[in-house]
Amino acid sequence: MKDYSRPFLLEFPKVGNPSLGFISIAEKEDLPFVPKRIYWTYYTPEDVERGGHSHFDLQQILLAVAGKIEVTTELLNGEKLHFVLDRPNMGLFIPKMCWRTMKYTHNAVQICIASNEYDEKDYIRDYQIFLGEK
Ligand code: TYD
């Protein structure tokens, strides 16, 4: 049984070949939650660090559909992980209550598949408050 309390990489099918190009598909059976929202970020300057927050309830899957994203994650048990997303068919599951930061190459396009609608009250944007949730 999969542990949805920790981040993990999810490999999506990659169908095609170099002469035709490729397609990747996220079927609902292969997702850890039913998506309620999809958003994407792009043109992030390379010196900008995004994220810097946790969510009480939201679960997400991040994908670099172009370029490269470096993600650090931290759980309340102190576990810190570092992920490099640089394959369009590779996603990163981010659980609830997980502090994360992201850095992007200039050409990176990030898609986020999210388990809930946008709700600012679901964010913890202060690191000390996050640690206080232990
Ligand atoms: P945020 O989630 O903090 O971005 P990141 O994790 O990439 O650093 O969101 C950035 C801003 O965009 C913030 O002001 C909230 C707003 N926003 C929405 O209005 N709706 C959304 O669905 C998302 C994801 C963000």
From TrEMBL:
Pfam families assigned to the protein according to its UniProt record, in alphabetical order: FdtA
MF GO annotations: isomerase activity
Sugar 3,4-ketoisomerase QdtA cupin domain residues: 9-131
Gene3D superfamilies: Jelly Rolls
EC class name: isomerase
E.C. no: 5.3.2.3
Name by which UniProt lists this protein: TDP-4-oxo-6-deoxy-alpha-D-glucose-3, 4-oxoisomerase
Keyword Cytoplasm: no
Name of encoding gene: fdtA
InterPro entries: QdtA_cupin_dom, RmlC-like_jellyroll, RmlC_Cupin_sf
Isomerase among keywords: yes
Keywords of the record: Isomerase
Highest taxon above the source species: Bacteria
Segments crossing the lipid bilayer: none
